[in-house]
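User: structure tokens for this one?
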Amino acid sequence: MEKSIATLDKGTTCSSWNYSGQRLATGAVDGSLSIFDPCDPGSSSFTCTSKIKVHDGGGIVKVVWVPPEHGDAVACICADGSFALWEELVEGSQSLKWKLCKIFQHKATKALDVQFGFSQTSLKMVTFDIFWGVIYNFLQVVAYSDGHVKVYELLDPLDLKNWQLQAELQNVIDSVSTLGKANCFSASISLNPQRGENQELSFVLGFNSDTPQLNSLKVWEFDQAHQRWLPVAELASPADKSDQVYAAAWATNIGRPYEVIAVATHKGISIWHLGLNPDMDGRLHVEKVALLSGFEGEVWQMEWDMGGMTLAATGTDGMVRLWQSNLNGEWHEQAAFDSS
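Assistant:
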């Protein structure tokens, strides 16, 4: 039986769920950011506890929670391509309030998507504890309308205002890009949700653009030895490489000998298996194992459950569909809900 847990304002365009804090953030066409919290401890019903006008020049098209290690903060991308961080703070004896933390200025191009992750550095001695350990850098990956991707590193883990550009790249396999000026309408970034002790940050990225080379989903991994980002796989068959990507989602790996990644294009949702061990050229083996169809229009957003077993997808047909695979690897639609 379907049960509503929260009532969203009319004009809500996007949402982001905070698994750690059990909170929901939504953005709307009027430029307002809303935060929903449980009505009572342990409650499955949520109510709006904060509503902030974050932008006057257009609606919010993307909201993303910052990982809880860095407090309660949300990244907002607006329809005009502006991008800012908002943080929940206590000022003196006052109650919690949401404040503008950082605006990322890019006059010539628009931000399309942003995701946060961690990348380990080499072993370093933490002097105040006198031992050697792995140090993790907090990164954000941002895709822009000109087809470029920028990776920013947080210099001070206690200050979300202090970011430094670590790398800039284009979503192409060739080491030297010869692309002309690209016009990208949307982008989808999904980071590998795993953060093992010996595992570097990796992410998948695809564009919906007028430049075919940028569109197909590529897997990027940080090469610690040479301090650079490298494309290690492409999730597209030869006939599909120019297909515009609408959404991507990397599943949590709970012990599989491969990764599972979902890719949405106009042909449906493709389920890919990504090998864990690179070949002699540093590339990872890929295999498309399923194509989920039956959607009317575009798929806007996909999310895996925390176990990486169930995929939820929604789009222009106004339906939320849940997909699972059986023990034979066959994918089936388990449920469909009308989200209107």
